[in-house]
Design a protein that fits this description.
It comes from Rhinolophus ferrumequinum. With 129 residues, the protein is an all-alpha fold. The protein has 5 helices and no strands.
């Protein structure tokens, strides 16, 4: 990984900190080994890494496909992948769900305000004799 080592160094440090914070241990060597596999077999993986759980899961699916197709992969990558997956899960938000809830809340508040505004509106009426 010669050049790649320096390329991934910040990402490795970040993953190591997340693993430590999540009370999971693995060596820097194992994280680096996993990233070498990404570099070799998952060329679409961002050069600077990612904390996006969907992308991490896609990598896992790709690695399982490779393994199923007879590609030899280091045995330690599975445990390392799983540990990183565990620490990435709590970082994710259900942004679509949260956005929908926020919109519904805002719409509900807006409708409530509109109802209040209608009730408080003074509508002039003309009384004819």
């Amino acid at each position: 990984m010669g050049n790649a080592e320096s390329k991934y160094e910040p990402y490795i440090c970040l993953l190591k900190q997340l693993l430590k914070k999540g009370k999971h241990k693995t060596s820097e060597k194992k994280v680096e080994e996993l990233l070498k596999v990404f570099e070799t077999h998952c060329s679409w993986f961002p050069d600077l890494g990612t904390l996006d759980l969907d992308q991490w899961e896609e990598v896992g699916r790709d690695l399982h496909k490779l393994h199923s197709n007879g590609i030899s992969l280091p045995g330690s990558i599975w445990e390392t992948w799983e540990l990183v997956h565990l620490v990435l899960e709590p970082l994710q938000t259900d942004s679509e769900e949260e956005t929908e809830i926020e919109i519904e809340d805002q719409m509900g508040e807006r409708e409530d305000r509109e109802d209040e505004d209608k009730e408080s509106e003074i509508v002039p009426t003309v009384i004819q004799k």
